[in-house]
Automatic annotation (TrEMBL):
Residues 75-375 form the Hormone-sensitive lipase N-terminal domain. PANTHER family: HORMONE-SENSITIVE LIPASE, TRIACYLGLYCEROL LIPASE. It comes from Rotaria socialis. Residues 566-596 are annotated as: Disordered. It catalyses: cholesteryl (9Z-octadecenoate) + H2O = cholesterol + (9Z)-octadecenoate + H(+); 1-(9Z-octadecenoyl)-glycerol + H2O = glycerol + (9Z)-octadecenoate + H(+); a monoacylglycerol + H2O = glycerol + a fatty acid + H(+); a diacylglycerol + H2O = a monoacylglycerol + a fatty acid + H(+). Residues 399-540 form the Alpha/beta hydrolase fold-3 domain. The lineage of its organism: Eukaryota, Metazoa, Spiralia, Gnathifera, Rotifera. Pfam families: Abhydrolase_3 (PF07859), HSL_N (PF06350). This is Hormone-sensitive lipase. Pathway: Lipid metabolism; Glycerolipid metabolism; triacylglycerol degradation. GO terms for cellular component: caveola; cytosol; lipid droplet.
Amino acid sequence: MPIRRNRSKLMSPTTLTLLASQTLNCSLPTIHNSLMVSYNSNNLTLPTEATTPITLQLKTIASGSTFNLTYIQVIGLAKTNYDIFAKHKNDICRKFEHVLIQLFNSLKRSLSLIENLTQILHHFDYSPEVHANGYRTLILSHGHACLRTLEILKQVKAKHIARLHRRIHSLKLLQELKSWTKTLKVMEHMLSLAVGLVDCSDKHSLFTDFSQIPSNIELDYYKMVAYDSKHLFGRTCGFQFNRSMEILLTIILASFAAYYDTYNRSKTAAAASLATSSKYILFPEQRARKCAEILRNCDYLFCQSFWNLLEHDSIKKGSRYIAPNVTVSKYFQIGPEPIEINSIIVPPPTGPSSMQSKQLVNIKLLSHEIREGMDKLSLQRADLEGSPKIVLPMSDQLLMHVHGGGFIATSSATHEVYLKPWALGLEIPIVSVDYSLAPEYPFPRAIEECFYAYAWILQNASKLGWTGKTILFAGDSAGGNLITVVTIKAIEAGLRKPDAIVCFYTPFLLRYSMSPSRLMAMMDPLLNTNFLWRCVAAYAGIQCDGESHNDELSSTRVSTDNRFDEMQASNSKRLSPNQQVLDNKNKPPSKESSTIDLHHDRLTQIVGPRQLCILRKLSESKLLDHPHMSPLCVSDEILRQFPTTYLIPCARGKLISYCKSSLKVKFSFKDPFIDDNIEFARRLRSLNVPHQMTIVDELPHGYLDFGSVARDVGENNARVIHMLQNIVRQSHSNDIADLTSALTITS
């Protein structure tokens, strides 16, 4: 049954009565609270009469963290500044009045929505001890936006008497205040949609299929994605992360906008355009409009092209001065012969592609020193970055790595910025798989290549300087999805499974569905909502008119979905009963055709015909429900056999580690995939699978790649190496005692 909030009884709230005669004795106009906020809230009129006293009920929204005082201060300062500006009749003061009115009204509505959400937050947590889910992330982000707004209001109050009559100073502060007010209004829309999602959710699941969401909520969501993102990429870009990441994300977005200006020119000219991106840094409003336009209208080919700039020779040469050298760095190909292990045949990859089937698989071996057996790979001088000091015995542990990049971009080379420090810190061989990328090689090609590489590693352990004793998997983002699927395939085939898997900010559910953390994807400069769905569509082989590379690609993609119809049918029978929300059988009856046509017309006006085509095909695709695409849909029978799992998403707040059994998940609270990790960890816990979940503080999706350019990320990556060292030691001794029901909180 859907979750219903008890509006008459709150759970231990802290009641803050703001009296009209004191803090809020204001003549600011009010707007009635509404769960679905109108998009015409810009059309506010100046006040005509005083309001009545307002009582706001707030409560702690996260363990050890509350913004109650921040909200009081923001509202109080908004009132104070409004009273001062109301005494003056010049144009600047009137503009300040208007912005302060919008700020005040938006906060009123937002606090009402937050009050509703705080009553049900605990239903969606991983456990009573670990307070983490997308709803908490959204509320915390709103609080941090208010905190930054408070800084601007303090500057306005401090400077209005002496300096605000000077136009140059006043306009700058006015623009800052406008930007933060617009950001808070966008977050108000997000909170409103989150409240609507709660009413649609079943069994306390964080995910809701779009077919279960009322059409008005769906329309409001796409309006927000289409029209409001421009308010998030300007002066307030990246506010939800730490300050060093804010600067870096601003530079990335400026480069993104500048690259678009020279798109379809030579790669050298396009790369050179990044050096002329200063105008998009100096003029944030221009950057915001440009980036919003690009993300709304471009296809996945542009996004793929931008991120593949990292593969440009000049950038690769520069990265060599950033990443430390390792002794062995050998890139080679394996295949195409079938591999037999204990009577189990693993064929070479044959998945659909836009080109002639390429049966060879590219892998890279990284090692801090040469080990016995590596000479069988015929190491050349070019494979050695340093002079070998000694030939070490074979290692008992080996790490197989699969890189991220949305299934469509980057390679093992672009991820060496953290892989080489791993090789030096862990002192074990690392094999990174360079799988073929979508859309040229759509699902299941990448999975087949990674699974084939895994079988080859098992069969050729000695060539890699490995005894064959312990093998660990690690992957970030799309790579985390792939290593999880390889684990599933190994269990299904009866092949040896890895001893542990480490998943960094991994998407475990690629189905066309909504969750609170997915709402926040529109705020993410690196994994924006539009980019996210285009990546999924490219990986699934979904295309619309005008996007095909060639006719062969079109024909193979159509057959991809058909190929897995039978697999999906058999899988749906094996789904866990407590995962019914993930089962298509529970979808409600289809709408009347006339209603659908009207809804279709409205969506077309909002997102455009091409984007709507992608969204429609995603919603109709059965492929996205298959556990080889969405590991969260895997059966209990398979998941129960999982090795120790480590989940590592990203978050806002203190770094929290929860250890249980032997699974580790690492993610970010500000990650669009935090809900994936929470739901996956819940299933692991319900099946008593050893696991650990670590929530990383204030860093964005993809943070591993930024360790060399952002100090905070570099410090975190050093902690990641320490964590991996512990995993290696535990796997070596088979000691998982410290992974049993332990909760630690560190700064």
